[in-house]
Amino acid sequence: xxxxxxxxxxxxxxxxxxxxxxxxxxxxxxxxxxxxxxxxxxxxxxxxxxxxxxxxxxxxxxxxxxxxxxxxxxxxxxxxxxxxxxxxxxxxxxxxxxxxxxxxxxxxxxxxxxxxxxxxxxxxxxxxxxxxxxxxxxxxxxxxxxxxxxxxxxxxxxxxxxxxxxxxxxxxxxxxxxxxxxxxxxxxxxxxxxxxxxxxxxxxxxxxxxxxxxxxxxxxxxxxxxxxxxxxxxxxxxxxxxxxxxxxxxxxxxxxxxxxxxxxxxxxxxxxxxxxxxxxxxxxxxxxxxxxxxxxxxxxxxxxxxxxxxxxxxxxxxxxxxxxxxxxxxxxxxxxxxxxxxxxxxxxxxxxxxxxxxxxxxxxxxxxxxxxxxxxxxxxxxxxxxxxxxxxxxxxxxxxxxxxxxxxxxxxxx
Length: 414
What we know:
Distance between the termini: 42 Å
Radius of gyration: 22 Å
Mean pLDDT: 96
Helix content: 40-55%
């Protein structure tokens, strides 16, 4: 492997690429791993069905049903993922003890103490999301509801989440990205598009009226193009969310499953960076719509990574994954997605971006195409293997997951 790595390093050097520098940069890139892959988005604070356009398909054995099981599974996945990262929690993963149960508008930092302990144990940061779905008060609408009591409930929930996010940042020493997404919309043609959006705007204004440390908590707003039950009208559309974050100087969050199938987030990143100090991403793999498939090393994932790297935006872009597949081993799903995001970033780090930009500026489009195609057959795998070696890892991780499935997951009875 050392010989293969040295040869690969020399090959990249002939294109002006510093491989060792690229590896050092990759070591420090934190990707936020979403907890909800491990239990199919069930959470711990309700026993009803998923709602709000959220759906998982499949019944692979071994779903985590308790906080202990979920943390155990996440620990297993993280042991197979190189580097130190972050975990991404939804508010519905609050952990209640001694018979205490509080509704979402009353959750407090103490209900997430065990998550903080888990993060500290593994040197992780924590990101957070208010959970405005799968709840009796989310059956019709949440922050855009015409019912004032419903809106007040969800406003208080989001305010509580800001306080919890600040607690996470203080405890872990890493900023917390807190993302707001609502499932509000209509199945069929609306008679009033403006009213719900005005109520949503007013709700957001009230949520953000509480004081918090903007250096510790980055509040983001996530749009959506449509979803199950809101095929005709989405309150939190892209135009609404972009305009709102611009006005309030918040951070926009783009989920690459939340756009028309012919739109690409990779193409939007450069435009957003021109107007925003920071940008947040939920990287997923939509298949025909926002179906949240496991992230692969596909063209869009690689283009997203290239846009972050070639624009020198690693310190401005928050990268998180977002998918939930119940048809395959859930731990493998985490490892596959996280490693693929890292591979995409490494490939981007190993490209001669400055040279390519100069060729484009000189309108040497033939030479640029030749170089772009040459980069596709570079010895990337040898560099990736070297990266894994620094963490005493390799590509033969699936056998460990299979053993864990046999010894742990299949004994859970779910």
